[in-house]
Write a structure and sequence with these properties.
mainly alpha, two-stranded antiparallel ribbon, 9 helices
Length: 262
C-alpha cells in the first residue's frame, strides 16, 4: 500500500531535465564548432572531430572528443534510460527510499561509463582510419563504398537475435535479486550492465550515425528518436526492422552509385 501512494521523485526528474537541456546545448555547440571538414579523394568529406585544433595536441583533441561524446550520449540516451533509473524505486521494496537519488546517480554513472568506454574505442578507430586515408589515396577513394558496406551491416544487425535480445534487456531492466539494487554497489553494477545491453542494442543505429555524419544535428535527432521508440514504445521489433530496412536500402544505394560512377 505504501508503494502505491509513493510520490513521484520530482527533484530527481527536474535534475534529469536540467541535465538533458545542458547536454543538448553542449551537443549543439560542439556540432557547430566542428562543422565542416576536409574534402578527400573519392568525393567525401572528413569530419573535423578526428583532427586536433590548429596548434592543439592530440591529448587535447581526445579530451575534447570525449567531452563532446558524453554530451551527445546524454542528449541521445537519457530519455530512454530514465525508466531504467526509475526502476530502482520499484525494485527495492522494503528498503528506505531516501537514498534513491544517490543510487540513481550511481546507476547513471555506471550506464554512461559504458558509453564513455565506447567513445574511447570510437575515437581511436576514427583517428586511425582518418590518418590511413590521408596517407593512402586508394583507401580514401574506397571510403564511400566502405561507408555503404557499413550501412548494410548496420541494417543487417537490426534483424539479428543478438539485437533483439539486447533490446528486450533494455526494455525490461532486471536488478537480479530483490535487494540487489538497494545497495550503492548494486545500483552501480545495475547501471553498468544496462549500459552494456544498451551499447549492444544501439550498435546498428550508432554505426549508421558515425557513417552518415555524427556532427549532423538532424541525423542525430533521427537516430535518437529511433533509439527512444525502440526502447519505450510498443512493438519495438517492427521499429528495429524498419530502421534496418532503411539502412540497408541507403547502404545498397551508395554501393550501386559507386559502381556506376566507377
Amino acid at each position: 500500500m505504501q508503494a502505491q501512494t509513493r510520490q513521484p521523485p520530482w527533484g530527481f526528474l527536474f535534475a534529469c531535465a536540467a541535465l538533458f537541456a545542458l547536454a543538448v546545448a553542449g551537443t549543439v555547440y560542439f556540432c557547430r564548432s566542428m562543422s565542416g571538414g576536409m574534402f578527400m579523394p573519392g568525393g567525401w568529406m572528413m569530419s573535423m572531430m578526428w583532427m586536433p585544433m590548429p596548434g592543439g595536441t592530440w591529448a587535447a583533441a581526445g579530451a575534447m572528443f570525449l567531452v563532446m561524446w558524453l554530451a551527445m550520449m546524454v542528449a541521445m540516451m537519457l530519455p530512454s534510460a530514465l525508466p531504467m533509473m526509475l526502476h530502482l524505486r520499484n525494485s527495492s521494496a522494503g528498503i528506505e527510499q531516501r537514498n534513491f537519488e544517490v543510487r540513481a546517480l550511481l546507476a547513471a554513472a555506471g550506464y554512461f561509463l559504458v558509453w564513455m568506454l565506447i567513445g574511447i574505442v570510437v575515437y581511436a578507430l576514427g583517428v586511425a582510419f582518418a590518418m590511413a586515408t590521408m596517407r593512402m589515396d586508394w583507401l580514401s577513394r574506397l571510403t564511400p563504398a566502405l561507408s555503404g558496406t557499413a550501412l548494410v551491416i548496420a541494417g543487417v544487425i537490426q534483424f539479428t537475435s543478438w539485437k533483439m535480445s539486447a533490446l528486450r534487456r533494455c526494455r525490461a531492466p532486471d536488478c537480479g535479486t530483490r535487494f540487489a539494487c538497494g545497495t550503492l554497489k548494486g545500483s552501480w553494477r545495475y547501471g553498468f550492465k544496462q549500459g552494456v545491453a544498451c551499447g549492444i542494442c544501439c550498435t546498428g543505429p550508432m554505426l549508421a550515425l558515425l557513417v552518415l555524419g555524427a556532427m549532423n544535428l538532424t541525423l542525430m535527432t533521427v537516430i535518437a528518436l529511433v533509439i527512444t521508440v525502440e526502447k519505450l514504445l510498443p512493438r519495438p521489433e517492427e521499429t528495429a526492422r524498419l530502421f534496418g530496412a532503411a539502412a540497408l536500402l541507403i547502404g545498397l544505394g551508395i554501393l550501386v552509385q559507386r559502381v556506376f560512377l566507377v
